[in-house]
Structure formats: structure tokens, C-alpha cells
Design goal:
mainly alpha; 5 helices; elongated
């Protein structure tokens, strides 16, 4: 599977989602918990995020001390989203397929037809009262 992310207006191909990459993603996703628990400092967390972006995109970034941390966090979020997008899309499509199957069942179609009939009769009834 191929994963892409746009960085500074340029499409970048991300490395395959290997177990090593997955471990890095999980570590980045847990970074706030690790800061709160005192496992790492905020500075160390930013360095991990910086390294994650550089390794993932092979992009040359300004030194961490000169980088806007909002931009860094946005890049991290975009990379993680790019890796998660195919799985999320597959789950949504599977759910839609299940919903289509349910909606096409005769008993469900009959239920909606009955509800439609009741709704139309209710509108007629209200109209005749006025």
C-alpha cells in the first residue's frame, strides 16, 4: 500500500507502514501521556516529533530551535492521518455495505413504506383541520 502526504505543497511518499513505523506512530500518539507522566520532557517530545517528520517525509526542515512548533504538530498530524486513512476508509465502506444490505431487506422496505403512508395520512389529516 502507498501512503502520501503533502508537505509544503509537495506530495511526498511515506515509507510503508511496517511494524517499526507503526511503533513510531504509537509513540507519537502517546506523547502527551508520556510528558504528563514525566517519562519525557516537552523538549524531548518535540525532538521525537521532529525526527518522525524528517524520517517519514525525508524533508529537510529548519533546525528544531527555529521551527514553528504549530507547523511541526500539523505535519505530525498529517502524517499520522495519511497512515490511518486507508483503514478508516475501508471500515466506512464496509459499514456502508452492511447498511445497504439492511436497507434492501424486504421487511425494512415495508417498514419505510408504512412510515411514508402514515406520514402522508398525517399531513392530509392536518390539512383538513385547517
Amino acid at each position: 500500500m502507498n501512503y502520501y502526504v503533502t508537505v509544503n505543497g509537495e506530495n511526498r511518499t511515506l515509507p510503508a507502514r511496517t511494524p517499526e513505523v507503526d511503533d513510531r506512530i504509537i509513540a507519537i500518539q502517546n506523547i502527551n501521556r508520556r510528558i504528563r507522566s514525566g517519562e519525557i520532557t516537552r523538549r524531548e517530545a518535540r525532538q521525537e516529533q521532529y525526527n518522525f517528520v524528517v524520517v517519514s517525509t525525508r524533508e529537510t526542515l529548519p533546525p528544531l530551535d527555529q521551527m514553528d512548533l504549530g507547523d511541526l504538530e500539523a505535519k505530525v498530524a498529517e502524517i499520522i492521518a495519511a497512515y490511518q486513512r486507508p483503514a478508516i476508509q475501508a471500515k466506512v465502506e464496509a459499514s456502508l455495505d452492511v447498511l445497504k444490505d439492511v436497507m434492501n431487506r424486504p421487511e425494512v422496505k415495508n417498514l419505510f413504506a408504512a412510515l411514508d403512508k402514515v406520514s402522508k395520512e398525517s399531513v392530509k389529516s392536518k390539512a383538513s383541520l385547517t
